[in-house]
Amino acid sequence: VTSEMGFLDQLPWDLVTILAVMVILALPFLYDTHGPLQYHSRFIFYIASVSATATACIPIFMLRPWNVKNILYITYILKHVTKVMGITWELRGAEYLGADRGCVIVANHQSMLDILGMFNIWHVMDKCAAVAKKELFYVWPFGLAAWLGGLVYIDRLNSSKAHDQLNNAAKLMKTDKKM
Questions:
Q1: What are the TM regions of this chain, as residue ranges (predicted)?
Q2: pTM for this predicted structure
Q3: What pLDDT, on a 0 to 100 scale, did the predictor assign at position 179?
């Protein structure tokens, strides 16, 4: 029995992997260009960094699932992505976030890049349970890593269910002090 090898079977996958890594590593050097190439190279670098970090952290997070301190591992790595991308952040009121008490932070963001701002202040908050729409859970590997890191997903289309989910999270914060 003979079979014809398809195009994909003939590709040297180790070479393809090396080329993909080289392209991702070259992306920051394309930042000095202008227009769409600059935007897309930064966006691809960001997505690749978040995905790789989340993938690497998932096994660690499985050792202590749903612990909000898991996210600190990701933030230590991804806060450096903003430096590579040329984004700077200024945190005002850090003394309020660092206090040993509960607080609510509303981060009404406009793009998926805004989460980089949270990565840069997470270490000040130490124990923080973020809330996000349930659809983000399906953006893997980020969604799975965030879930294992204690992120609370809510169903925005079902207000009573979302309310119950937030009440359960609040109950955990008060009784177990897990968040």
A1: 12-31, 43-63, 136-154
A2: 0.70
A3: 46
CA–CA dist 47, 61 (Å, integer): 20
From CA 164, how far away is CA 172, in angstroms rounded?
A: 12
Beta bridge partner(s), residue 131: 152
Give the C-alpha separation, 179 to 89, whole Å.
25
Nearest to 84 by CA among 54, 44, 55: 44
3-state percent helix, strand, coil for the chain, nearest multiple of 5: 65, 5, 30
26-30, 138-142, 145-149: least confident range:
26-30
Angle at 78 between CA 139 and CA 36, to 5 degrees: 70
> Does residue 161 contact residue 155 with C-beta atoms inside 8 Å?
yes
Q: Comparing 50-54, 112-116, 138-142, which segment has the lowest mean pLDDT?
A: 112-116
CA–CA separation, 30 and 37 (whole Å): 7
What is the rounded distance in angstroms from the CA atom of residue 19 to the CA atom of residue 17? 5
The better pLDDT of the pair 20, 57 is held by: 57
Pick the closest to residue 148 from 130, 171, 174 (CA basis). Answer: 130
